[in-house]
Amino acid sequence: MTGVARARSWLAVLVVVAGGCREAEPRSPRVDAVARSAARPLCSAPGAGAPAQRAACDREWSVLVYMVADAPGLTPFALWNLHQMEGRLPEPAGSAASGRDADVVVELDVDQPPGIRRLRVVGGLVPFAPLRSVDEAAGEAPRSPVVERLDEAAAEAPPATPRSSLAGFLAWAIAHYPARHYAVIVWGHGFGFRPATGEPCCDTQNPRGGIALDLSRHAVLDTPALREALADASAARLGGRPFDLYLSDACLMQTIEVATELAGVARYIGGAEAKLDPLGLPYRLILPLVNGSAHASPPSPRCPARDPACQLAVMLPDLVRRGVAPDSALYAAADVASTARDNLTYSVLDARMLTARVVPAMHALGAALLGYLREAPARDERRIALRDLLVPHRPSAARPYVHAFIGGGRDIGSLLVALRAHLAHATGAERATPAAAALASAIDRAEAALRSTVLASALGKRYDDPEYAGMLGVSAWLPISAEDYAANAGWFAAARFYLAPDGSARTASPWGAWQNELFGAQATP
After folding, report:
1. pLDDT tens digits for 415-474?
2. Helices 482-493 and 510-519, interaxial angle, to 10°?
3. Dist CA 372 CA 99 (whole Å)
4. I want to staple 332 with a disulfide (CB 3.0 to 4.6 A). Which of 130, 170, 360, 494 is the partner?
5. Tell me, what DSSP letter sits at residue 295?
6. Other C-beta atoms lying within 10 Å of the C-beta of residue 349
């Protein structure tokens, strides 16, 4: 849920977002999920929660929360999130837990006994107490029924891996709590994209990339393993169809490198491109919309008819914003969530549009940037100018740059705005060259693709400043220097995003080629 405890030493420049729900082309309707589960009727008993009862019928939703709090400082916030689910709502019929239309199932792993528990979360068990301070986040142990207990030492011993642990939970939950729609939430420390390196992890609280850091097993879930765990469970229990919604309740996970990996296993992808406050997602606002205890909002024109997953996805960023607003009922005082409110960046992406439009547009942009960098006679001046857009320095009207998140992520929308501003400041003759014209066209196409893919985003007030213009809520790694490129380009080039459009080697990717042109060993100083 939380994120990095401290910045990597080689890059401590934090970044931004600015966005919101934008109009775009309508999404194509999906095949109705009801047809896929016609063999099971909808559950008629709201309280039926025993696995034997539930396996015979479907709810509309199952929300599957993989809560890895087995790291210092995370347990109190895990208990706070569970308290949000279990606490009574003001309305007698309200619930932020399992209900008429949904089951909420949690696998909870904390940094202390009693081991790993699987809970079917039940609401109304305790009065809800708004959080008074972050230091007091630790609450009582969850009171929801434990459906299954796992011996942690046995469950995490080889040949078990982070991939098999997540896949096992998802497959178990789907088998015992089948539904027409599934939302998967991975909760824990997040550090961005991590390839399947085979390197040991993790002696510190700052592994290099990944999600769901588990210090008791010295392991973190790398990005391909996250994708494969979702794919394993889908193949085993869903006939290979993707999960409806995947959310990271973690820092630094809403990047194009991560999202492209997940595009085949989730229809909508939510996450934060910057640090996500330890307070995490506002479950008390989200879950009543899923379990049938809250009034449905008017349908969004961004979504096709009869697609509840899209409708929920569109609302999520605003719910996150409302959760930390000064008048939020989740907190006893406005200043409890002030840091979360200021630094908020949360967005939801349409995975199909990401694959169909954004990835090709980004490679086309990379090809245009490469041509622009190589076009005579202004090659040296262009290299200097584009390096200035990426190398951190104090921003100014004369020398703006694209701010970097921890780990080197740059908001793609902000990058596009900066590139367009760079072209606008060129002389008339310079803007009229073939390469400059091609770059301007590629920027426009990439922005249109991105706006059609970002369903909605929520942004903290720190990003209201004009220097953060264009933020849309999803980032891509870019180097800040030749040294940074040499150290990290290979790490990020392992992402599926870097595959060339024709599927050839990642080193041939247009998006990688322009970075190499600018910062590689052959680049001029």
Report:
1. 999 999 999 987 766 778 999 999 999 999 999 999 999 999 999 998 888 878 899 999
2. 160
3. 57
4. 130
5. P
6. 30
